[in-house]
Structure formats: C-alpha cells, structure tokens
Amino acid sequence: xxxxxxxxxxxxxxxxxxxxxxxxxxxxxxxxxxxxxxxxxxxxxxxxxxxxxxxxxxxxxxxxxxxxxxxxxxxxxxxxxxxxxxxxxxxxxxxxxxxxxxxxxxxxxxxxxxxxxxxxxxxxxxxxxxxxxxxxxxxxxxxxxxxxxxxxxxxxxxxxxxxxxxxxxxxxxxxxxxxxxxxxxxxxxxxxxxxxxxxxxxxxxxxxxxxxxxxxxxxxxxxxxxxxxxxxxxxxxxxxxxxxxxxxxxxxxxxxxxxxxxxxxxxxxxxxxxxxxxxxxxxxxxxxxxxxxxxxxxxxxxxxx
Length: 305
Prior knowledge:
By secondary structure, the protein is mostly helical. The chain is 57% helix and 0% strand. The protein has one domain (6-17, 67-296).
C-alpha cells in the first residue's frame, strides 16, 4: 500500500466482507496474518515449561520510516479522507460513522505476555474493530443501497464515496505516493538482505542453541511460526512460544536485528540520496496540498503537528 496504514484503514469498513475473500498476511518476524479457521483462542493452562518471560526491549523503528508520513500526518490523512467520505455519504442520504484514528491504527501482533501466549500460542492477536467501524460494516453487509453509495461499482475506482475520498488523499499517480512506494520496497529489501549477513546467521544459531538446551529443535524463530501459526492451540505450542521469547531475550534477538537493519538502512540512504531528497520534498508538498484542500472545503480536520 502506498502509505503505511491508509490502504488498510480504507478497507476497514469492508473487513467483514473481505474476510470471506482473502486473508491479509505480514512479516514472519514482526506480525503475521490471520490464523486459520482451525486455530483456537482457548487457554490451554499452565503446564509445561516454567511460566515466566524475560523482558526484551522492542526493536527500534526503521530510520527509513523517517522518510514516510509520521503517525500524526497519517492521522491527518485518515481523518481527511474519512470526512470527505462522510460528507459524500450524507449527500447520498446515509449516516457514516468515523472511527477514531487511534482505534484503527493497530496491526495484528504476535502474543508477547504469558497470558497472551496461554490464550493464543503463536496465533496473532487481532485488534478489536471499534464500534463505529462495526456499524459501517453492518450496513455495508445488510444494505445494498448503502454499499452502492460507499463502494460503488467494483470495476470503477471513482464512483463510490470511499473511492472519491481516496482520489483526494491517496491518488495512485501522485508523486509522493510513487516515491513512498519506493521507500516501502526499500524497507522490504533491507529486511531481506539481512538474512545473508554472517551476523544474522550467527544470531539464529545462538537462538537455536538456546532452544535446543530447552528441548526444542528449531533453526530460527521463523520456523516456529511456520510450524504453529494457524493450527490448533496445544500445550506444546504454548511452551515453545514461551521458550522462543525467552531465548530471543537471552541472545538480544530484536536489538541485534535492529542494529543490523540500521546499518543496512544507512547504506541504502547513502546510496540513494537523490531519492531521499525527492521523497522529503514530495512528502512536504503532499501534506501542504492536502491541508489546503481541508481549509478550502472547510473539512475541520486538525492539521498535523
């Protein structure tokens, strides 16, 4: 998606429908897609390995994120397109409820506390859909006229209120959107490039030794995800996840990955300074033009900090 969250946020009112069509998946290190229908959320109890977790500081954000919209700028973009869509729906004779940005600006995450691991194992914890968004989902599902006004013709990306708003806030041919996509690809490439580094290989080996000492024979954390995500929750899965988290803490897994990512990102920036300068300029222009649209049309959206 062109912006970090906008594409996902734009789809929120249609999540119930989209769930019948496809699953969204993510990184095997930071977040993953929805569990399959065979997964459960039941607590399997406290048997197995000692129920404790060693705290592990989170990995620092990528410095490439500095080239992208800040959280407050994304909040501004989100509220702008939501307000445009709301006005459009009102003109069509429908109420449209806007969910607060902070309630929808969350992604699925892997369980990281003892209680979460007991209940979910490796299955991602999905953020709860806020009431306002659930109301829109309900109307899109049950009211064909509401759906037609909001979504329009699936083959025409311009006729629904949702699409009309996104044409303002997220034009697919916009200069910033295209440059931001370049940065997004760079972030993906940076992560992929780490796997060939000797330091990365050594990190996985250290983690694997720690796991072996506890009776779990896996070569890297991603192997546990492959084995357990989307399957029935068992005590083995819970115990493996707890051991996994403790071994990651013991070898400073996330912190080390963060340092390797920082080095790779700095190299990309140094090698692509022209792109970096163009992104910064385009981002400033994009936010300024959107702010001007908000002011001219009296949308009442609070400007970004």
